[in-house]
Amino acid sequence: MTTRHRDRHAYVSVRPSTPPQVPHHLESQRHQYALVQRAMDLGWPAPRVHVLDADLGPAGPESQRPGFQELVTAVSLGRGGLMVAYAASRLARKNPDWDTLLDLATVVGPLSADTEGVYAPCQYKDRLFLGLRGLLSEAAWPGLRLRREAGRQRQMAWGTYRQTLPPGLVRVDAGPGIKDPDRQLQHTLELVFARCATLGSGPKVMRSWRDDGSFLPRRQLVGMQAGQVRWCKPTPAALGEIRQNPASAGACVYGRRALAPPQRPGKRRRVQRPMEDWQAVPQEAYPASLSWAHLLANQARLADHASSFARRARGGPRQGQALLAG
Fold first, then answer.
1. E strands, 114-251, where?
2. Domains present along the chain, CATH in parentheses
3. Active site (annotated) includes residue 308
4. Which of the residues 23, 58, 219, 324 has the least number of beta carbons within 10 Å of its own beta carbon?
5. DSSP symbols for 212-253
6. pLDDT per residue over 154-197, tens digit each?
7. pTM of the complete model
8. Identified catalytic residue from 13, 17, 63, 112
9. Does 61 score more than 60 pLDDT?
Protein backbone atom coordinates (compact mmCIF):
# COMPACT_ATOMS: atom_id res chain seq x y z
CA MET A 1 0.00 0.00 0.00
CA THR A 2 1.70 3.13 -1.22
CA THR A 3 1.11 6.86 -1.44
CA ARG A 4 0.06 6.37 -5.07
CA HIS A 5 -2.89 4.26 -3.88
CA ARG A 6 -3.90 6.76 -1.18
CA ASP A 7 -3.82 9.65 -3.63
CA ARG A 8 -6.67 7.97 -5.49
CA HIS A 9 -10.22 7.30 -4.29
CA ALA A 10 -11.57 4.41 -2.23
CA TYR A 11 -14.89 2.81 -3.25
CA VAL A 12 -17.03 0.89 -0.76
CA SER A 13 -19.58 -1.46 -2.33
CA VAL A 14 -22.83 -1.95 -0.38
CA ARG A 15 -25.45 -4.39 -1.67
CA PRO A 16 -27.75 -7.05 -0.16
CA SER A 17 -28.00 -10.64 -1.26
CA THR A 18 -31.57 -10.27 -2.57
CA PRO A 19 -33.92 -7.26 -3.07
CA PRO A 20 -36.36 -8.34 -0.28
CA GLN A 21 -33.51 -8.02 2.22
CA VAL A 22 -33.28 -4.25 1.67
CA PRO A 23 -36.14 -3.26 4.06
CA HIS A 24 -35.67 -6.16 6.51
CA HIS A 25 -31.99 -7.15 6.88
CA LEU A 26 -30.78 -3.79 8.13
CA GLU A 27 -27.96 -5.19 10.26
CA SER A 28 -26.16 -6.44 7.15
CA GLN A 29 -26.41 -2.98 5.61
CA ARG A 30 -25.03 -1.34 8.76
CA HIS A 31 -22.13 -3.77 8.75
CA GLN A 32 -21.34 -2.95 5.12
CA TYR A 33 -21.65 0.80 5.63
CA ALA A 34 -19.16 0.42 8.49
CA LEU A 35 -16.56 -0.51 5.88
CA VAL A 36 -16.18 3.24 5.28
CA GLN A 37 -14.32 3.36 8.57
CA ARG A 38 -12.23 0.43 7.38
CA ALA A 39 -11.07 2.47 4.37
CA MET A 40 -10.32 5.48 6.59
CA ASP A 41 -8.29 3.30 8.96
CA LEU A 42 -6.21 2.19 5.99
CA GLY A 43 -5.22 5.80 5.31
CA TRP A 44 -7.88 7.23 2.99
CA PRO A 45 -9.35 10.59 4.04
CA ALA A 46 -13.12 10.82 4.29
CA PRO A 47 -13.60 13.11 1.22
CA ARG A 48 -11.99 10.45 -1.01
CA VAL A 49 -14.11 7.55 0.29
CA HIS A 50 -17.18 6.91 -1.89
CA VAL A 51 -20.05 4.57 -1.03
CA LEU A 52 -21.60 2.68 -3.96
CA ASP A 53 -25.09 1.79 -2.73
CA ALA A 54 -27.06 2.27 -5.96
CA ASP A 55 -27.48 -1.53 -6.22
CA LEU A 56 -29.51 -1.91 -3.01
CA GLY A 57 -32.88 -2.23 -4.71
CA PRO A 58 -32.74 -3.48 -8.31
CA ALA A 59 -32.05 -7.10 -9.23
CA GLY A 60 -30.39 -8.25 -12.43
CA PRO A 61 -27.05 -8.98 -14.04
CA GLU A 62 -24.00 -6.88 -13.23
CA SER A 63 -24.22 -5.15 -16.63
CA GLN A 64 -27.49 -3.53 -15.44
CA ARG A 65 -26.26 -2.47 -11.99
CA PRO A 66 -25.29 1.22 -11.84
CA GLY A 67 -23.12 0.76 -8.75
CA PHE A 68 -21.02 -1.97 -10.34
CA GLN A 69 -20.73 0.02 -13.57
CA GLU A 70 -19.55 3.07 -11.63
CA LEU A 71 -16.88 0.95 -9.93
CA VAL A 72 -15.66 -0.52 -13.23
CA THR A 73 -15.53 2.97 -14.77
CA ALA A 74 -13.56 4.41 -11.85
CA VAL A 75 -11.05 1.54 -11.94
CA SER A 76 -10.60 1.65 -15.71
CA LEU A 77 -10.00 5.43 -15.66
CA GLY A 78 -7.39 5.11 -12.92
CA ARG A 79 -9.40 6.96 -10.27
CA GLY A 80 -9.71 3.98 -7.91
CA GLY A 81 -7.00 3.14 -5.40
CA LEU A 82 -8.99 0.79 -3.16
CA MET A 83 -12.06 -1.43 -3.60
CA VAL A 84 -13.73 -2.39 -0.31
CA ALA A 85 -16.49 -5.00 0.05
CA TYR A 86 -17.72 -7.38 2.71
CA ALA A 87 -17.13 -10.37 0.40
CA ALA A 88 -16.40 -11.08 -3.25
CA SER A 89 -20.11 -11.73 -3.90
CA ARG A 90 -20.86 -8.09 -2.92
CA LEU A 91 -18.79 -6.87 -5.87
CA ALA A 92 -19.81 -9.38 -8.56
CA ARG A 93 -21.74 -12.65 -8.42
CA LYS A 94 -20.68 -14.05 -11.77
CA ASN A 95 -17.17 -15.18 -12.60
CA PRO A 96 -16.99 -13.28 -15.94
CA ASP A 97 -17.81 -9.98 -14.20
CA TRP A 98 -15.45 -10.74 -11.32
CA ASP A 99 -12.62 -11.68 -13.72
CA THR A 100 -13.20 -8.53 -15.76
CA LEU A 101 -12.85 -6.40 -12.63
CA LEU A 102 -9.69 -8.29 -11.62
CA ASP A 103 -8.19 -7.85 -15.11
CA LEU A 104 -8.73 -4.09 -14.91
CA ALA A 105 -7.29 -3.97 -11.40
CA THR A 106 -4.25 -5.95 -12.56
CA VAL A 107 -3.49 -3.37 -15.26
CA VAL A 108 -4.38 -0.17 -13.41
CA GLY A 109 -3.20 -1.29 -9.96
CA PRO A 110 -5.89 -0.59 -7.29
CA LEU A 111 -6.04 -2.68 -4.16
CA SER A 112 -8.93 -4.82 -2.89
CA ALA A 113 -9.86 -5.02 0.79
CA ASP A 114 -12.38 -6.74 3.00
CA THR A 115 -12.74 -7.26 6.74
CA GLU A 116 -9.86 -9.75 6.81
CA GLY A 117 -7.09 -8.22 4.71
CA VAL A 118 -5.83 -6.15 1.81
CA TYR A 119 -4.93 -7.73 -1.52
CA ALA A 120 -3.09 -6.55 -4.62
CA PRO A 121 -4.57 -8.03 -7.81
CA CYS A 122 -1.37 -7.13 -9.68
CA GLN A 123 0.49 -9.75 -7.61
CA TYR A 124 0.11 -13.35 -8.73
CA LYS A 125 -0.63 -14.91 -5.34
CA ASP A 126 -3.23 -12.31 -4.40
CA ARG A 127 -4.84 -12.53 -7.83
CA LEU A 128 -5.02 -16.32 -7.53
CA PHE A 129 -6.59 -16.01 -4.07
CA LEU A 130 -9.15 -13.44 -5.25
CA GLY A 131 -10.00 -15.58 -8.28
CA LEU A 132 -10.66 -18.58 -6.04
CA ARG A 133 -12.85 -16.49 -3.75
CA GLY A 134 -14.94 -15.37 -6.70
CA LEU A 135 -15.21 -18.95 -7.95
CA LEU A 136 -16.31 -20.23 -4.53
CA SER A 137 -18.75 -17.34 -4.14
CA GLU A 138 -20.54 -18.24 -7.38
CA ALA A 139 -20.45 -21.98 -6.60
CA ALA A 140 -22.14 -21.37 -3.24
CA TRP A 141 -25.35 -19.97 -4.78
CA PRO A 142 -26.75 -23.27 -6.17
CA GLY A 143 -26.25 -24.92 -2.78
CA LEU A 144 -28.00 -22.08 -1.01
CA ARG A 145 -30.95 -22.30 -3.40
CA LEU A 146 -31.22 -26.07 -2.88
CA ARG A 147 -31.23 -25.68 0.91
CA ARG A 148 -33.84 -22.93 0.69
CA GLU A 149 -36.02 -25.10 -1.55
CA ALA A 150 -35.69 -28.05 0.85
CA GLY A 151 -36.63 -25.80 3.78
CA ARG A 152 -39.77 -24.60 2.01
CA GLN A 153 -40.82 -28.15 1.25
CA ARG A 154 -40.38 -29.10 4.91
CA GLN A 155 -42.51 -26.11 5.90
CA MET A 156 -45.21 -27.29 3.50
CA ALA A 157 -45.10 -30.76 5.07
CA TRP A 158 -45.41 -29.29 8.57
CA GLY A 159 -48.12 -26.79 7.54
CA THR A 160 -46.06 -23.72 8.56
CA TYR A 161 -45.27 -22.30 5.11
CA ARG A 162 -46.26 -18.62 4.82
CA GLN A 163 -47.16 -17.89 1.23
CA THR A 164 -48.28 -14.58 -0.23
CA LEU A 165 -52.05 -14.39 0.12
CA PRO A 166 -54.38 -13.17 -2.66
CA PRO A 167 -56.91 -10.36 -2.21
CA GLY A 168 -59.62 -11.45 0.21
CA LEU A 169 -57.26 -13.14 2.69
CA VAL A 170 -55.09 -11.47 5.30
CA ARG A 171 -52.64 -12.84 7.86
CA VAL A 172 -52.82 -11.46 11.39
CA ASP A 173 -49.45 -11.52 13.15
CA ALA A 174 -47.99 -15.01 12.78
CA GLY A 175 -51.31 -16.84 12.60
CA PRO A 176 -52.98 -18.52 9.62
CA GLY A 177 -54.77 -16.57 6.94
CA ILE A 178 -58.29 -15.31 7.66
CA LYS A 179 -60.88 -13.56 5.52
CA ASP A 180 -60.24 -9.87 5.08
CA PRO A 181 -62.59 -7.94 7.41
CA ASP A 182 -63.11 -5.24 4.75
CA ARG A 183 -66.74 -5.74 3.67
CA GLN A 184 -66.36 -3.70 0.48
CA LEU A 185 -63.39 -5.85 -0.54
CA GLN A 186 -65.30 -9.08 0.12
CA HIS A 187 -68.33 -7.82 -1.81
CA THR A 188 -66.09 -6.94 -4.79
CA LEU A 189 -64.54 -10.42 -4.83
CA GLU A 190 -67.96 -12.07 -4.65
CA LEU A 191 -68.99 -10.00 -7.65
CA VAL A 192 -65.84 -11.11 -9.54
CA PHE A 193 -66.59 -14.79 -8.91
CA ALA A 194 -70.23 -14.31 -9.89
CA ARG A 195 -69.34 -12.68 -13.19
CA CYS A 196 -66.75 -15.36 -13.90
CA ALA A 197 -69.46 -18.01 -13.46
CA THR A 198 -71.92 -16.08 -15.63
CA LEU A 199 -69.72 -14.79 -18.45
CA GLY A 200 -67.35 -17.75 -18.55
CA SER A 201 -64.17 -16.14 -19.92
CA GLY A 202 -61.54 -13.78 -18.58
CA PRO A 203 -61.72 -11.21 -21.42
CA LYS A 204 -65.50 -10.89 -21.01
CA VAL A 205 -65.12 -10.30 -17.28
CA MET A 206 -62.37 -7.80 -17.99
CA ARG A 207 -64.51 -5.86 -20.47
CA SER A 208 -67.50 -5.94 -18.14
CA TRP A 209 -65.44 -4.66 -15.23
CA ARG A 210 -63.85 -1.96 -17.36
CA ASP A 211 -67.19 -0.80 -18.80
CA ASP A 212 -68.60 -0.41 -15.28
CA GLY A 213 -65.63 1.73 -14.26
CA SER A 214 -65.00 -0.49 -11.23
CA PHE A 215 -61.70 -1.07 -9.46
CA LEU A 216 -60.04 -4.15 -7.99
CA PRO A 217 -58.63 -4.34 -4.45
CA ARG A 218 -54.99 -5.04 -3.73
CA ARG A 219 -53.43 -5.12 -0.30
CA GLN A 220 -50.03 -3.46 -0.31
CA LEU A 221 -47.34 -5.79 1.06
CA VAL A 222 -44.27 -3.53 1.21
CA GLY A 223 -43.44 0.15 1.26
CA MET A 224 -44.91 3.07 3.16
CA GLN A 225 -48.48 1.78 2.62
CA ALA A 226 -47.80 -1.79 3.73
CA GLY A 227 -50.96 -3.45 5.05
CA GLN A 228 -53.34 -0.97 3.41
CA VAL A 229 -55.87 -1.78 0.69
CA ARG A 230 -55.39 -0.01 -2.63
CA TRP A 231 -58.07 0.15 -5.33
CA CYS A 232 -56.49 -0.15 -8.78
CA LYS A 233 -57.71 -0.32 -12.34
CA PRO A 234 -58.49 -3.90 -13.43
CA THR A 235 -55.92 -5.81 -15.46
CA PRO A 236 -56.08 -9.34 -16.92
CA ALA A 237 -53.27 -10.42 -14.58
CA ALA A 238 -55.10 -9.13 -11.48
CA LEU A 239 -58.37 -10.82 -12.49
CA GLY A 240 -56.54 -14.05 -13.29
CA GLU A 241 -54.81 -14.05 -9.93
CA ILE A 242 -58.15 -13.70 -8.14
CA ARG A 243 -60.04 -16.38 -10.07
CA GLN A 244 -57.18 -18.88 -10.45
CA ASN A 245 -55.35 -18.62 -7.13
CA PRO A 246 -55.85 -21.89 -5.16
CA ALA A 247 -55.77 -19.91 -1.90
CA SER A 248 -59.17 -18.49 -2.86
CA ALA A 249 -60.44 -22.08 -2.64
CA GLY A 250 -58.74 -22.60 0.74
CA ALA A 251 -55.70 -24.52 -0.55
CA CYS A 252 -52.07 -23.72 0.27
CA VAL A 253 -50.22 -24.64 -2.93
CA TYR A 254 -46.48 -24.72 -3.52
CA GLY A 255 -44.81 -25.09 -6.91
CA ARG A 256 -47.33 -23.31 -9.16
CA ARG A 257 -44.60 -21.61 -11.20
CA ALA A 258 -41.19 -22.62 -12.47
CA LEU A 259 -38.32 -21.03 -14.36
CA ALA A 260 -38.58 -21.68 -18.08
CA PRO A 261 -35.47 -22.50 -20.14
CA PRO A 262 -33.84 -19.24 -21.28
CA GLN A 263 -34.79 -18.17 -24.80
CA ARG A 264 -31.93 -15.67 -24.81
CA PRO A 265 -28.72 -15.58 -22.72
CA GLY A 266 -29.45 -14.10 -19.32
CA LYS A 267 -33.24 -13.96 -19.91
CA ARG A 268 -35.35 -16.37 -17.87
CA ARG A 269 -39.03 -16.07 -17.06
CA ARG A 270 -41.46 -17.83 -14.75
CA VAL A 271 -44.22 -19.88 -16.34
CA GLN A 272 -47.34 -21.51 -14.95
CA ARG A 273 -46.91 -25.22 -14.28
CA PRO A 274 -49.70 -27.74 -14.92
CA MET A 275 -51.76 -28.61 -11.88
CA GLU A 276 -50.53 -32.22 -11.91
CA ASP A 277 -46.96 -30.91 -11.44
CA TRP A 278 -47.72 -28.90 -8.31
CA GLN A 279 -45.57 -30.19 -5.46
CA ALA A 280 -48.01 -29.76 -2.57
CA VAL A 281 -51.72 -29.02 -2.33
CA PRO A 282 -52.86 -28.98 1.35
CA GLN A 283 -56.54 -28.10 1.22
CA GLU A 284 -58.66 -26.35 3.87
CA ALA A 285 -55.70 -24.21 4.94
CA TYR A 286 -57.64 -20.92 4.58
CA PRO A 287 -61.28 -19.82 4.61
CA ALA A 288 -62.52 -20.54 1.08
CA SER A 289 -64.28 -17.98 -1.09
CA LEU A 290 -65.22 -20.69 -3.61
CA SER A 291 -65.15 -24.47 -3.60
CA TRP A 292 -62.23 -26.56 -4.87
CA ALA A 293 -64.49 -28.08 -7.52
CA HIS A 294 -65.37 -24.57 -8.73
CA LEU A 295 -61.66 -23.73 -8.99
CA LEU A 296 -60.98 -26.90 -11.01
CA ALA A 297 -63.88 -26.01 -13.31
CA ASN A 298 -62.38 -22.54 -13.84
CA GLN A 299 -59.00 -24.07 -14.69
CA ALA A 300 -60.57 -26.49 -17.17
CA ARG A 301 -62.64 -23.74 -18.79
CA LEU A 302 -59.60 -21.49 -19.23
CA ALA A 303 -57.59 -24.36 -20.72
CA ASP A 304 -60.43 -25.14 -23.13
CA HIS A 305 -60.70 -21.51 -24.21
CA ALA A 306 -57.01 -21.30 -25.09
CA SER A 307 -56.31 -21.58 -28.81
CA SER A 308 -53.90 -24.52 -28.80
CA PHE A 309 -54.15 -27.17 -31.49
CA ALA A 310 -51.40 -29.19 -29.78
CA ARG A 311 -53.61 -29.67 -26.70
CA ARG A 312 -56.77 -29.97 -28.81
CA ALA A 313 -58.44 -27.07 -27.04
CA ARG A 314 -61.57 -25.74 -28.69
CA GLY A 315 -60.70 -22.10 -28.14
CA GLY A 316 -63.00 -19.26 -27.23
CA PRO A 317 -65.61 -17.97 -29.67
CA ARG A 318 -64.19 -15.28 -31.95
CA GLN A 319 -65.75 -12.69 -34.18
CA GLY A 320 -66.66 -13.75 -37.70
CA GLN A 321 -69.45 -15.02 -39.92
CA ALA A 322 -69.00 -18.71 -39.16
CA LEU A 323 -71.89 -20.45 -37.42
CA LEU A 324 -69.64 -22.25 -34.89
CA ALA A 325 -66.75 -19.81 -34.51
CA GLY A 326 -64.01 -21.26 -32.32
1. 118-119, 169-171, 177-179, 216-219, 229-232
2. 3-153 (3.40.50.1390), 162-255+269-305 (3.90.1750.20)
3. no
4. 324
5. HT--EEEE--SSTTTT-EEEE---HHHHHHHHH-GGGGT---
6. 777 676 777 777 787 877 776 677 787 888 888 888 888 888 87
7. 0.54
8. 17
9. no
